[in-house]
Amino acid sequence: MIFENVGFYFREALLSFRRSALMSLAAIISTTTILIIVGVFLLISINSSLFLKNLESQLEIIIYLKDDIPKTEVKALEDNLVSINGIKEIKFVSKEEAYQRLLKDLGDQRDILNAIEVNPLPASFEIKIKDPKMIVQIANQVEKLKKVEEVEYGQGIVERLLNFTYIFRIVGILILALLVFASILIISNIIKITVYARRDEIEIMSLSGATHWFIKWPFVIESFLQGFISAILTILILYNFYFFALNKLQQAVPFLPVVWEKVELLPIGLIIIALGSLVGILGSMFSVGKYLNV
Amino acid sequence: MIRMFHVYKNYSNKILALHDINIHIRKGEFVFLVGPTGAGKTTFLRLIYRGTVPTKGQVIVDGLNIARLKPNYIPYLRRNIGIVFQDFKLLYNRTVYENISFGLKAIGATNFEIREQVKKVLNLVGLERKKNVKPHLLSGGEQQKLCIARAIANEPLILLTDEPTGNLDPDTSWEIMQLLFHINIRGTTVIMASHDKLMVDKARKRVVRVERGRIIEDTQRGIY
């Protein structure tokens, strides 16, 4: 049934595109606008998510060791640390290394150290962890080990940071859900208007004895095309705008982590295409259905 | 062809549109449905093409029970019914030709069939020379003829017309009536809702009078 009349459906869809060019243009412009808003938010959210991840990955636990610790026990302690779950990376910093680092950090002011005769810095382990949420738990676990003088992980600040990233993510997801929901509503309303403008045709077809699907197909195809074209336009605009903005941003804040990889941007493109075309298809089916029951 | 048994129709908030309607309209009949505005004439017609379903009672059209007709079958019922509306329902952004071919395409006619049928009905109603004109350039009578042409294009068994002579002068009205008689003679059952006393009296066909939702008179060769 559908294949028999495919030519007719497409001709009708394109014909109505031409016949109501202004209406179609208005629909495409408004759909594109909505999609751009969604797209901009998506771009901001993947970048801020990268930023947060970066921030969290810098979290580490530093374990200061007692000064009297023999080499063998250092090894034993390291083995102990390896057996703890959730640790990504362990780095041993000897007393000497710590001293050298301090020298380097002090730079021109290294003379201060001349006043001290012995190296006052303890040896330490620097630990990177897999999941930032585990940091407090792991720190507590490490504290109980023998020969550990002190454990430092930015107590107080870490909790606040994690809290912040958590809330930031939740709010982001909520806003995104709201935006997607709003865009679905708006796009389907745009379609409703274009269908409403042609309700007479629907009624006449229905009264002439056309089957429901026969009436729906041209509308579905037309709305799909409208949505698809809007999505492609949106992607073209966002693509150019995004890399332009990224270049500017990079000049202003050079070390800010941003998403350059086009592959990582692909899901956003797919979401936009899905939003535009799927909502077009479903919206037109529902809207036409409303005028069919005469 | 059309039978109604104890048909009641209530719209929402209990407005009674039709009350205990019993009627039998045979194949090939010409029936006037007369009565004041709001008597239920349009509802009567709507029941036949399943524009609405009876609240109570049975409506049988060409062997199909309207109340029990599955939605999938409605299109096939309607292919046997031509409808001429009071408000024309023409597509004003399409030509005379396209207005007729539109309905034929909708029921899956081939291009060849469409060309032949449109030519035939345009000849019948006398609009063949205006086939490329948009409807708003036609006179009232011509628009009515276009509606009739569209309604009979797929050669339906039943033709329903709602006040087809409502806004026309007597001469044009009579022309429209002649056209409907002609269609009727060729075998189509015609039901015409009207309060055009002049036409009804001149025609001397079966007259069914509806008032406040009830049939109060049903006479062969009747007058208004």
Structure description:
The complex is a heterodimer of chains A (294) and B (224). Chain A is built from 9 helices and 4 strands. Chain A is of the alpha+beta class. Chain A folds into 2 domains: 182 residues, no CATH class; 93 residues, 2-Layer Sandwich (Alpha-Beta Plaits). In chain A, strands 2-3-1-4 form a 4-stranded antiparallel β-sheet. The two termini of chain A are 23 Å apart. In chain B, strands 6-7-8-3-9-10 form a 6-stranded mixed β-sheet, with helices on both faces. A 4-stranded antiparallel β-sheet of chain B has the order 2-1-4-5, with helices on one face. Chain B has 7 helices and 10 strands. Chain B folds into 2 domains: 149 residues, P-loop containing nucleotide triphosphate hydrolases (Rossmann fold, 3-Layer(aba) Sandwich), CATH 3.40.50; 62 residues, no CATH class. Chain B has 224 residues and is an alpha/beta fold. Chains A and B meet through helix 7 and helix 8 of A and helix 2 and helix 3 of B.
Brief overview:
The complex is a heterodimer of chains A (294) and B (224). With 294 residues, chain A is an alpha+beta fold. Chain A is built from nine helices and four strands, in the order H-H-E-H-E-H-E-H-E-H-H-H-H.
Instruction: Give the strand tally of chain A.
Output: 4
Look at the helices and sheets of chain B and give the structural class. alpha/beta
- Helical segment count of chain A: 9
The low-confidence runs of chain B, each spanning 5 or more residues with pLDDT under 50, are none
Strand order within the widest beta sheet of chain B: 6-7-8-3-9-10
What is the approximate shape of chain A? Answer: elongated
Under CATH, the topology of the largest domain in chain B is which? Rossmann fold
Secondary structure: helix percent of chain A: over 70%
Q: Multimeric state of these chains?
A: heterodimer
CATH architectural group of the largest domain in chain B: 3-Layer(aba) Sandwich
Strand content of chain B: 25-35%
Strands ordered across the widest β-sheet of chain A: 2-3-1-4
The percentage helix of chain B is: 25-40%
Structural class based on helices, strands and sheet pairing of chain A: alpha+beta
Distance between the termini of chain B: 24 Å
What is the total number of structural domains of chain A? 2
Supply Rg of chain B. Answer: 17 Å
Strands of chain B, count: 10
